[in-house]
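User: Alpha-ketoacid dehydrogenase subunit beta, Streptomyces cremeus:
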Amino acid sequence: MAVKKLPIAKAINESLRTALENDPKVLVMGEDVGKLGGVFRVTDGLFKDFGEGRIIDTPLAESGIVGTAIGLALRGYRPVVEIQFDGFVFPAYDQIVTQLAKMHARSLGKIKLPVVVRIPYGGGIGAVEHHSESPEALFAHVAGLKVVSPSNASDAYWMMQQAVQGDDPVIFFEPKRRYWDKGEVDTEAVPAPLHRAEVAREGTDLTLVAYGPMVKVCVEAAAAAAEEGKSVEVVDLRSMSPIDFDAIQASVEKTRRLVVVHEAPVFYGAGAEIAARITERCFYHLEAPVLRVGGYHAPYPPARLEEEYLPGLDRVLDAVDRSLAY
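Assistant: Predicted structure for Alpha-ketoacid dehydrogenase subunit beta:
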């Protein structure tokens, strides 16, 4: 078995390396992804080994990056493009939602666009404005896009492999404050399906659903709750579009309570869709309303205030207590 202990950033790096080695049509593009190796060093070393023809430093023009990737995909390439920070994606939003997401339907299935858009997202790194956003709901709302986010190194490796190999456009959200969290990666394993949720911790009294950076917080909350005699199950969603509602339903039918947690604002967030669907599916099983924990409906604050903005252990545990009090 080829098992390695890697941080998430290095797991993505190794996954990209494997994809580049296995398919000469795979390209990596973005601002500073080449000689610098990316601002988070996720693409470190790839330029040296694969050259400027496949690891391409682009101008500071996100619309141009994605538009070029669409053209390359039309010519048979499999571009993996990096948006340097989450808040920088909006100049490319038009290309993503009106072209990348729609071409398959527009051509009645004749055209496929196997483009992966990597977006480091979320807060917790003490950054300035436009560097800590969580815009995943904006993309999950768009038909034609797959939207995923790993929470651990193994998923980071395998989900990137699956995203690159697929024929559909994938928005790949990378939890930047977890980049250096280490975990075991078996590069010879049989991975779970890309859009299947996974149980990160078993429990019987309440279900916590999270994805990306908040999975670790929820696992810690479940451990803290266990010290008070509460058994909390944690479901790692992994995919925000499509959503594995069957896995959530199976957990909720067992625990009869659900709290959804994400960094993005609660207002119109992914948690709203999950709450509505699970209320429809599990109405006669639920013993409490579905609760949501997330960011505030406000611009992301300066670094000194971000710990007040981000959902932490206390806010998750408060929601657990409120749900169990019904």
